[in-house]
Amino acid sequence: MKYSKIVLVAALGLLVTIAMPAQAGKKKVNNYVRSGDGSLVRDGEGKCVRSGDKTTKLLEECGYKKKKAAIKKAPVIAAPEIVKDTVLEHIVVNNIQFSFDSDVLSSDDKAILDDVASRLAPYKEKLKKGTSHINITGYTDSSGPEAYNMKLSQRRANVVADYLAENHGADRNSMNVTGKGEANPVADNSTRAGRIRNRRVEVDVVQN
């Protein structure tokens, strides 16, 4: 009989534990006194009157504020830093086909440079602020003396720089204009087609 009582008590304890409200772990405060119609009873200062028993229900009208759910802010991803001397735009103008021993731009060449200017337009603010600059490099084919070709390539680069400055408002002071003669060929100088391709100008926007 004694053993049966122990088992019964243990079972009742288990049932009580299971039947406990889900709010058992929440903050408990003194319960609120209510009038016959269910409304909250307040004292002379307008505060809610409390009873001796406990409750886990926190009423906003009695001074408790609901905790606002934390709003997760999206992480701020910093823009990658552009390393100095990074080439931001590389334009090979190898379809400006300078005639032999010439630095004169044809009407077709000017149309090509108009397109180059449109590609440079997105960098206008960076160039204006001095955070980038333009390198304009002229080249020739291998025909003629090397020293003469060096000067000719410089003249060709200057013609392109002047056109961009005079017709598209590019800042001449933001340009580094050089001639490299017959260096760095992109095609075979032993063929006519190759020599035409090597008579070119390259335009680079570079990060300062």
Helix-residue proportion: 25-40%
The CATH superfamily of the largest domain bears the name: OmpA-like domain
Estimated share of beta-strand residues: 15-25%
Number of domains: 2
CATH topology of the largest domain: 60s Ribosomal Protein L30, Chain: A
Secondary-structure element series = HEEEHHEHEHE
Describe this structure in words.
- The chain is an alpha+beta fold and 208 residues long.
- The protein has 2 domains: 26-60, no CATH class; 87-207, OmpA-like domain (60s Ribosomal Protein L30, Chain: A), CATH 3.30.1330.60.
- The chain contains 5 helices and 6 strands.
- The chain has a 4-stranded mixed beta sheet with strand order 3-6-4-5. A two-stranded antiparallel ribbon has the order 1-2.
- Strand 4 (132-138), helix 4 (146-168) and strand 5 (175-179) form a beta-alpha-beta unit.
- It is rod-shaped, with a radius of gyration of 42 Å.
- The termini are far apart.
